[in-house]
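Following the same procedure, the fold was encoded as tokens, giving this record:
***
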Amino acid sequence: MKIFNRMCRGEVAPADAQPLAPTIVMLSLVLLAACRPEVPPTVIAPAGQGQTGGVQAIPVLATATSIQPTAAATTPPTAVPLYVSAFRHRTGVFAINLPERWETLDDSTDQRIYVRLLPPMGYGSRITVEITNEGPLPPEETKQLAESYVRLNYVEAPGYNMVTNNELPDGRLQYVFLFDDKRGATGRETLVIQQTGPFFAAIRIFLSDRDSAAAGLTLEQVAGSFTVDPLAPWGTQVAAINPAELQIANTLLWRDRGGTTFYGGELMNASPADISGAQIAVSFCDKTGVVISQMTQPLDVHIITKGTVAPWGIAVKDLPDGVTVCSQGASAQPAKPDPNYTTAAVLNAAVSYQQWRRDLTVEGPITNLGLARVMRIEVIIVAYDVDNRVIGYLRTPLDSTQPLDPGQSIPFSVVIPALGGQPHHMTTMVQAQVVSNANPSLAPTPTPGITVTP
């Protein structure tokens, strides 16, 4: 064995083992082929030196050396934390986790919560929360209300295409839409509707295609933190409007030269809620007090907010001379929020009065001062005498197919042919229907510091 070890170290050559037996020589040759020579450690001299500690450095050969891949780390990298803060709406109705640098736009009213949650500048995505107090609803009525919501916000709005419609295991309703305005704005919007206590809540998550990689997971986490408090004391529904809270005032009854009887006035909404569907019921009596005609007239003003007045006018033909109003009353329903209704357009009117004809000419431009396109415009004109009584009333609808863009004006002229006295002052009102916005992504700009490759 000692000889074998010396042979492996090169101290003894196989020929030196000739005195050994032939069998042992053959075995030694086999073992010698299997032995591994001891390779001294490579010593690389520092630059500018040829020797280290008296040992000559081994020269580096000019041959290509393959680079071995770095072994994967056994511990996964730590994820960058998403810093969020709990956002609770001022009404206490809903709460949601809001990432830092996100912005909230709150356009809520006493009847509708409407909040938009926007990521930092440069993103086209967003989350919208919309809540109304509808009172406790059974599942079927919730579904009907959800269908109306979808029809109003998606079916009648261009660019949306529904791809899924599911009822989740917890009873929530989920709708997924693809959006493409054909002008470069594309994305995916997920609508989730739930009825929690008295609250009908809708959360809309719009993810722009350009933001999928950068904001997709964040939007999903934010939407997943959305909660509704069914015990929040907000938006208590008015079960019915008390007729005693609808006050009729500033009335005047008169008759024109053609024999038509006019009766006009104002309705004061003293109830604790906005009202819609208001009606005036009037009974006309002859000189002896016998009722000879009864009629119900809907008000032309679509929504009358609490604490405000709305004018009205009634015209009746073929009534005898000397008729009186022997009874009158009003009725209405609580008004639900109507995002399609607006009074943002105005009439800048110039007025001329022909006393000998007792008619009033009103003319001037109608200008849309709102931020949305409108159509189905209606103009309501009311003339008052010095005692603030309604002596003239006219509702004039314009061409319902002609839209009016923000800031745009159109000419207007009309004549009120019959007045009940000398006009002292006048009021005008313009109401219209909002045309839905076709581009919810608002053409996002590139995020600062990020290069967008087309």
Notes: The chain has four helices and 27 strands. The radius of gyration is 42 Å.
